[in-house]
Amino acid sequence: xxxxxxxxxxxxxxxxxxxxxxxxxxxxxxxxxxxxxxxxxxxxxxxxxxxxxxxxxxxxxxxxxxxxxxxxxxxxxxxxxxxxxxxxxxxxxxxxxxxxxxxxxxxxxxxxxxxxxxxxxxxxxxxxxxxxxxxxxxxxxxxxxxxxxxxxxxxxxxxxxxxxxxxxxxxxxxxxxxxxxxxxxxxxxxxxxxxxxxxxxxxxxxxxxxxxxxxxx
Length: 217
Hints:
By secondary structure, the chain is of the alpha+beta class.
């Protein structure tokens, strides 16, 4: 079975799924699809035209965490979830916190942080207040010992953390003048470096860098 990963290598959620596919050793091809596509074939697989999505022999599948669960089901080894049900649930809990309570909140800053736009003062206040609440909550769950969920096993939570934590840090530093993760006691950078030494992460980072350079013209 060959999976087609659709999206583009600058997207953090595309890279979350790509990292999992590479770690699994699952065969896949890549198809460049930009956000907000109106193509009927794209909408058939991803009705909100969100990326990433995948094409499988059975049909399309969207939403990065759903795709991660599918990947785990079709190829259980190497496992990206612990065998123990509670430990596996704790990994999924971390994925939710990283994706929804950190990255999704910080995403409102990206227009100003990365794309030359402006974020209103009201939005800045709202985002900062929410992150001041959410970062300490995340730190109650994160272990970084050495993996984000604790222990030596690389999991889905590491796929989410490696692509998303640097974005939260960079966006808050660009808009607020400080990396809020670091400022609030989440020293994630040694962890990001550790994951970045994995061959799969190196491949993702190289492809992201090449795509970013191409997009910049």
